[in-house]
Design goal:
By secondary structure, the protein is an alpha/beta fold. It is about 25% helix and about 15% strand. The longest helix is centred in the N-terminal third of the chain and has 13 residues, at about 5-15.
């Protein structure tokens, strides 16, 4: 990765802003393996969407460069998107192999929509990164996922549900991020009950779908909600956890408890 002088100065300034004496705390790095490219067409997505294939890919060499930029400081790396798995198994395998060879990488997380997850992907994760933490985006039950659709306009919920069941079959625990849209508001108990019914889910975070550019219309429903709606609703956007191990852990424990969401204002 060739950086211009201006880019290098920006990176150096970023590093200087860190607490240089706190060398034991990992720097969190989000790697968008395919930029904004995604294989589904969520109606509330703020990214510039374009149907895969297409878009630049982050290479293994760039991953290695990250480590040198931070001078050996511990790194917690999250593979993100768009949808990171659209980079393909071979490419993700190269990245995971590179990360495994970097001693300063203390944690690797994958945030995915779950559509492409299958046995071949999980076999690869088991071989190359058995401690990989996985987060899945899913807005609760089928009703809650009304705005998560493919480019053909069809719901993606059935495919993601199948992936969560497969993850449970393989003994992997995952965290779920659920966007709070009008289809979720007021249904916190239903949504939580549904999600914890998957044997793989051990953590749930509610994230408000705020979009000031969208105006509510009686004739055209919108996925956006307003801050007062979120604060007044039982399905508030504050994180709710199932189990004590945090999102995306690779625990094989099955004991879980449900913690109801509490209504607090979003900062």
């Amino acid at each position: 990765m060739n950086l211009s002088t201006e880019q290098r100065h920006l990176v150096e300034r970023l590093y200087r802003s860190l607490d240089v004496d706190d060398t034991g705390t990992a720097v969190s790095v989000i790697v968008k393996t395919r930029g904004e490219t995604c294989d589904i067409d969520c109606l509330y997505c703020y990214e510039k969407r374009k149907e895969a294939p297409g878009g630049a890919r982050v290479g293994a060499g760039q991953i290695s460069r990250l480590a040198s930029l931070f001078g050996g400081r511990p790194l917690a790396v999250e593979l993100h998107g768009g949808e990171p798995l659209t980079a393909g198994r071979d490419h993700i395998a190269e990245i995971l192999t590179e990360l495994a060879g970097l001693p300063q990488v203390v944690r690797v997380t994958l945030q995915t929509n779950g559509v492409l997850l299958d046995r071949d992907w999980l076999d690869m994760f088991d071989d190359l990164c058995p401690d990989l933490r996985i987060g899945v985006s899913l807005d609760g039950d089928a009703q809650g996922n009304a705005w998560r659709v493919g480019y053909d306009g069809r719901p993606v919920y059935p495919r993601v549900a199948a992936s969560l069941n497969l993850l449970a079959e393989r003994g992997r625990s995952v965290g779920v991020i659920a966007a709070v849209t009008p289809a979720v508001l007021g249904r916190a108990e239903e949504v939580l009950d549904h999600l914890v019914g998957f044997g793989s889910v051990n953590a749930i975070s509610f994230v408000p779908c705020f979009d000031s550019t969208i105006r509510r219309s009686n004739s055209a429903p919108t996925p956006a909600i307003r801050p007062p709606e979120a604060c007044d609703s039982p399905a508030a956007p504050t994180p709710s956890t199932c189990g004590a191990e945090g999102p995306g852990t690779n625990s094989r424990k099955r004991g879980r408890r449900r913690t109801p969401a509490t209504a607090t204002p979003s900062p």
